[in-house]
Amino acid sequence: MPRVIVVGSGIAGLTTALDAASGHDVVLVTKSALGQSNTRYAQGGIAGVMSAEDSVDAHIADTLAAGAGLCDEEAVRVLCTEGPDRIRELITFGVEFDRTDGEFARGREAAHSYPRVLHAGGDATGARIEAALVARIRESSAEILEDTFFVDLLLEDGHVAGALLRLADGAERRISADAVVLATGGAGQLYPYTTNPAVATGDGAAAALRAGALLADLEFYQFHPTALTTADRFLVSEAVRGEGAVLRNSIGERFLAEIHPDAELAPRDVVARGIAAEMAAQGGIPVVLDATMLGESFLAERFPVIDRAVRASGIDWSQEYVPVSPAAHYWMGGVVTDLDGRTTVPGLYAVGEVARTGVHGANRLASNSLLEGAVFGARVARALGTDDQAGWPARPARPFADPMRNPATDAPPFSRGALQQLMWDAAGLLRDGQGLRRAARVLDAWSALPLPTDNIRSLEDRNLLALSRELVLAALFRTASVGAHARSDFPNSHSPLPASAGAEPREVVPAC
Ligand code: SIN
């Protein structure tokens, strides 16, 4: 049987591995314990058209609008059309989505024209899905390697030939394979404040980059507006605002209605930037989420996970306001794929947050990410072993040429914390050319340092450094403000660039 290595164990990796296991020798590699992934922390739910009053066309329209004109329409159509069947499949796997009077309870989140977000266990949707998929994969024929770090891809004559892994005991293992599927999730650890777990260091995207795969849309990083201001930046779901909670500034006033007609349910990038601007105007004091109108029992029943976290931080949110601020949440860009997850490197597939399928454009619609993992995971499993190049008649070019490296001579000493702060300051919610150029030069200086390769932390740092540089260059190249990418020096929302997959080289980023 052909062998497939699936790297990552969120909804995308587990769906791919499960579906592929019947016809392939599947090796599932996961960096931590099985079940530890971004999926596990997803609260709001999974978006999908599961009622007669809603329509797939409306879901498509909302997704395209959130993506600010830069989605691939065909990919969005696939996502929204195939999504309901994947949700029904999750139900057969044992995921019990919450119901009211027998009907699915449907939450509302930002930029959805209809309440279509299904949830399970209140705000434990990702954890319930993850648990159901983990139970099934444990019963399957897949070999599972936990606590195993994916170091790199192995290539032979330009084709993926396997993976180099570092096992829990520190030993290296090379596994040959006919295909490798990257399902490694995002890279929230690029920033000091993130809703992502510590494992989200972009290992798959960085390995794809080293292997010569095309990455795109890296400038589009979504910041969730409402994370607790505690050290772990615990997510307070948009669904809380969907139920009626509001944001207030330091003098107790609502401020978002002045920025957007949908106020607290405006697109996520608008709310996040609105909060950042309000915080800046108030000398950095966080804004607060007022959920007091929802009442103690409703908060505990509808949002049990958040309720525990908020109360653990010493706040009775049925009586008190909750300090919140934006945090890095989701990377819209990633490894460019066709509609079946094929990347530009033969034998290499990508699925879930690591992939750039084109469904998110410049800004992801809330709760479309679990859906993407389920829909495209199934498609990748079906496509494995078919003509690797079918989706790529010609190898698309990177949209910008890499400028000569121009290392800063006064770069501060490298540390992960310094890198994260640099990214927050220069490539966070608001960017400008001067800050981005400086960041690129500092990253160039750090990239020239010899990082050790004998420990996982340093291998992760290598990945974060490489991806930071790509993100910063992409942000420099896009001289416009669109979706999650806001340039204070180019506030005009007109984007001169199409979605970057397949774009011809147009312009060289000026030497930084
Ligand atoms: C949330 O629950 O607010 C996050 C959902 C998502 O990121 O799609």
Structural description of this entry:
The chain is an alpha/beta fold. The protein folds into three domains: 3-147 and 332-391, FAD/NAD(P)-binding domain (3-Layer(bba) Sandwich), CATH 3.50.50.60; 225-326, Succinate dehydrogenase/fumarate reductase flavoprotein, catalytic domain (Flavocytochrome C3, Chain A, domain 1), CATH 3.90.700; 399-512, Methane Monooxygenase Hydroxylase, Chain G, domain 1, CATH 1.20.58. It has 14 helices and 22 strands. The strands form seven sheets. A five-stranded parallel beta sheet has the order 8-2-1-12-19, with helices on both faces. A four-stranded antiparallel beta sheet has the order 14-17-16-15, covered by helices on one side. α13 runs antiparallel to α14. The longest helix is centred in the C-terminal third of the chain and has 22 residues, at 456-477. It is globular, with a radius of gyration of 22 Å. 55% of the residues are buried. Bound molecules: succinic acid. Succinic acid is lined by residues 43-44, 237-239, 330, 366-367, 369. Residues 43-44, 237-239, 330, 366-367, 369 line the site of succinic acid.
Keywords:
single chain, 512 residues, alpha/beta, FAD/NAD(P)-binding domain, Flavocytochrome C3, Chain A, domain 1, Methane Monooxygenase Hydroxylase, Chain G, domain 1, 3 domains, four-stranded antiparallel β-sheet, 14 helices, globular, binds succinic acid
